[in-house]
Automatic annotation (TrEMBL):
Highest taxon, organism lineage: Bacteria
Transmembrane segments: 12-32, 52-72, 79-99, 111-133
Pfam families (alphabetical): DUF6069 (PF19545)
InterPro entries registered for this protein in UniProt: DUF6069
Protein name: Integral membrane protein
Organism: Myceligenerans indicum
Keyword field contains Transmembrane helix: yes
Alphabetized UniProt keyword annotations: Membrane, Transmembrane, Transmembrane helix
């Protein structure tokens, strides 16, 4: 496996999902007026929670790259297992907002952002992993 390709793609994925989080917050707060992650009076950006969501999404993406790297080195059908793990984690991320006492619109918006982040991580990291494994096979 070409680790440099895997990790450079993983860093790019981290940037993409951080931006997905930002776009989601700005769209729901600014366009639809749904107060996610902060009270409505905190404007379109929200508060520090928006930054933490972006950082958290990026960290999850990098952890996903570490996971797929480990799976590729040690597990048969690594991408199948990776898909199941990230898919189930995405379900948890989609359900998690519903255990809070926020308004239903805020819960739905947060869940949607989490699910889109999960799908992005699944698709981008899986694609990067396939490319990294293919490059290594061509270099043998």
């Amino acid at each position: 496996m070409d680790a440099r390709t895997l990790w450079s793609g993983g860093i790019a994925t981290a940037v993409v999902v951080a931006l997905i989080a930002l776009v989601g917050v700005v769209v729901f707060r600014g366009v639809f007026g749904i107060p996610i992650l902060a009270p409505e009076g905190d404007g379109v950006w929200g508060d520090a929670s928006t930054t933490w969501l972006m950082v958290g999404a990026a960290v999850v993406a990098l952890c996903s790259v570490a996971l797929v790297h480990l799976l590729l080195l040690s597990t048969p059908r690594a991408l199948s297992f990776f898909g199941w793990i990230i898919g189930l984690a995405t379900v948890v991320g989609g359900v998690a907002p519903f255990v809070t006492d926020a308004e239903i619109a805020s819960k739905l918006a947060s869940a949607l952002i989490n699910v889109v982040i999960g799908f992005a991580i699944l698709g981008l990291v899986s694609g990067v992993a396939r490319t990294a494994a293919g490059r290594a096979a061509r270099n043998l």
